[in-house]
Automatic annotation (TrEMBL):
The lineage of its organism: Eukaryota, Viridiplantae, Streptophyta, Embryophyta, Tracheophyta. The keyword Repeat does not apply. It comes from Lupinus angustifolius (Narrow-leaved blue lupine). Residues 331-341 have a biased composition (Gly residues). Keywords: Metal-binding, Zinc, Zinc-finger. Gene3D superfamilies: 6.10.140.2220, Tetratricopeptide repeat domain. Residues 325-348 are annotated as: Disordered. GO terms for molecular function: zinc ion binding. Residues 279-321 form the MYND-type domain. This is MYND-type domain-containing protein. Signal peptide: none annotated.
Length: 348
């Protein structure tokens, strides 16, 4: 066994090592696998700074097109022209995750609405469920325009497409729309059915996450996942079914937006009176004053969507909402609390 190892060592210290002998195609193939499975941006970016050859091949169109969502999970404080350029390279390579993420950042954070919408639409046309859902939220609120730019029917249609692709928030939103007759003909029983289905899908998602994280544990002991940067470790919706499991990790771009508007460059707008969606895992800001729905009971919190409102109600707001704090004025139809049953119209 010793001889081959010695031989190997000798070869790798030679001027022309094994790596040099590998064909570019093979290196690109390996890098594509790496970029699609990287668990953080640095895991991929570090490869690019290793040597000139890896830098050249790492920026190959095929490698960039395969980059997974976690390659784009950057922090708001790390946003720079350099990062923007990297995103653009990935967009040009046809990467849908890059299209969606940069679309959201441009639309909400950089206020380049047209370009942001066009990038999200590019991803949506290729059936990117998150892009479809985000476009739906924009249509429901008339974001980037005036109140008259709201297109509820378009929002419902986009939600329907995203929910067919298994997007749980879109399914929940669609359920609430049907229950309330919002942008679609009211159908309470179908709405309730979709809300129950959304919760069943969420349960399946969490069970998969928990069992893959810790195969030896059962659900009864499964507060094993934590919602990153959030104290709430138990999924409030599933707790209604008697399960004590963690909620899924929030999408990177949603954290990016929350950081951008709470502690980053977007803080100025929040100080100026625009508000963030109160659901901790959303991060969407208002694009004009009084754009979001407000809790009609306390008037203190605002939401970009019915889905966010329902989740936040069960997650924390039902503990905080106080009817005595009524402000009087009601915008956008308002919001409300009360009730605990899943699939119920407890948050209107
Ligand atoms: Zn929201
Ligand atoms: Zn409230």
């Amino acid at each position: 066994m010793k001889r081959p190892l010695k031989h190997l060592h000798k070869r790798t210290t030679d001027k022309h090592d094994f790596f040099d002998a590998l064909f570019d195609d093979l290196v690109v193939f390996i890098l594509s696998k790496l970029s699609s499975t990287a668990s953080s941006p640095s895991q991929f970016i570090n490869i690019l700074s290793t040597c000139k050859r890896l830098n050249r091949l790492g920026l190959h169109r095929l490698v960039l097109s395969k980059a997974g969502p976690k390659v784009f999970s950057i922090k708001a404080k790390n946003w720079s022209e350099h990062v923007h350029r990297f995103f653009k390279l990935c967009v040009n390579a046809g990467n849908l995750n890059a299209c969606y993420t940069l679309g959201m950042i441009r639309f909400y954070c950089l206020k380049n609405r047209a370009s942001g919408l066009s990038l999200m639409a590019k991803a949506a046309m290729k059936s990117h469920a998150q892009a479809l859902y985000s476009l739906a939220v924009i249509q429901f609120n008339g974001s980037g325009g005036t109140k008259r730019d709201k297109d509820l029917r378009a929002g419902v249609a986009l939600c329907a497409r995203a929910s067919l692709l298994g997007h749980i928030d879109a399914l929940r939103e669609l359920g609430h729309c049907l229950q309330d007759g919002y942008g679609v003909k009211q159908n309470v029983s179908e709405g309730r059915r979709l809300l129950v289905k959304a919760n069943a899908l969420e349960l399946a998602f969490v069970i998969r996450a928990v069992t893959s994280a810790s195969p030896s544990r059962s659900l009864s002991t499964s507060s094993v996942l934590t919602w990153r940067a959030v104290d709430y470790t138990v999924c409030p919706l599933l707790s209604d079914y008697g399960y004590n499991v963690a909620v899924p990790v929030v999408q990177p771009v949603n954290w990016f937006m929350r950081e951008w508007f709470e502690t980053g460059p977007g803080r100025v707008e929040m100080v100026a009176g625009l508000r963030l969606c109160a659901h901790i895992g959303c991060g969407r800001p208002e694009t004009r004053a009084h754009e979001f729905r407000r809790c009609s009971v306390c008037g203190k919190v605002n939401y970009c969507s019915r889905g966010c409102q329902a989740l936040d109600w069960k997650l924390r707001h039902k503990m905080e909402c106080s009817p005595e704090e009524v402000v009087g004025e009601d915008n956008n139809g308002g919001a409300g609390g009360g009730g605990v049953d899943l699939g119920n119209d407890d948050v209107v």
